[in-house]
Amino acid sequence: MKIGKLDWNDLKTIIDKNRTVERKDVRIRSGIGEDCSVINFGDKECIVSTDPITGADLNSGVLAVHINCNDIASCGVEPVGILVTILAPENSCLEDINRVMREISLEAGKLNVEILGGHTEVTKAVNKMVISCTAIGKGDKSKAVSTSGAKENDDIVVTKYLCLEGTSIAVNDFEKKLKGILTLEEINEAKGYIKHISVVKEGVLSGKFGVNSMHDITEGGLLGALWEVAEASKVGFKVYEDKIPLTNITTKICDEYSIDPLRLISSGSMLITTENGSGLVDMLKCSGIKASVIGKITKKECMLVSNGKEQKVMPPKSDELFILEEKLK
């Protein structure tokens, strides 16, 4: 099998075949593109999400906290706590686990998120450390935003720059290989992208603003996230390549290694659909968050406009990060 997320059709089949119970108190449940499940507890709702870190060596604890808390934020609510599972290979030492937990503790503290518990073990089942977190949030009844809420004619907004996560992982893990195409200043800047991968602030602000759907842009990049929103919402989209925000450093790396930045893992950017894209962009800008309108939700068909020509967007494939890592090894 290919490295990365399962093929979209395979995953959908597995989910559909194994859904044995549907409780009335689960308002939003598992499905293609849904970052979280939402459980009704009367006047409040519990929002839960889980994700592993498998594609990074350095800063893996940092990423583990943020990719899970970002999922909670994609519902428009603040994360409250996380559960942490660490599976370490036999060649690990205690300091490796301590380092990861220090990173997790520091990042969770920045978000006012409590470490609620978890599990840690050394196992032959992995050849590099795997960190999986489950994040939990709390919101008012019926207020959580879903991935499946996108509506025809919504503006499509993305925050900050795409590929912050993928670029940071590449530079932190393969600095020596990239010195030939990046300056020392650019390398240091890219390493710092890790500081900007949280989307909790914009997620909570957008939830209060009133939006129709949100989705954290992770594995599969922008086009993967857009496809998942469209599939979950039973709509299409049209986005414009020249409106999509990328840093010069990301562009340099992607051009050098023939990587598609629109399919590169992009924690640090939230995908939002709303009836009032310009109003949302202005509100986020006033809060110090860059945001861009990059297209529209359509009735059907998923399209990317590149150099004035429309290209049909196909279902998500393996993330470009895995291809980039192979080229950099």
TrEMBL record:
Q: Name one Pfam family in it.
A: AIRS_C
What CDD domains does the annotation carry?
PurM-like1
UniProt domain PurM-like C-terminal: residue ranges: 195-300
**What superkingdom heads the lineage?**
Bacteria
Q: Which InterPro entries match?
A: HypE (IPR011854), PurM-like_C_dom (IPR010918), PurM-like_C_sf (IPR036676), PurM-like_N (IPR016188), PurM-like_N_sf (IPR036921)
Q: Where is the PurM-like N-terminal domain?
A: 33-137
Q: Which family does it belong to?
A: Belongs to the HypE family.
From the Swiss-Prot or TrEMBL record, give the protein name.
Answer: AIR synthase family protein
Could you tell me which species this protein originates from? Answer: Clostridium moutaii
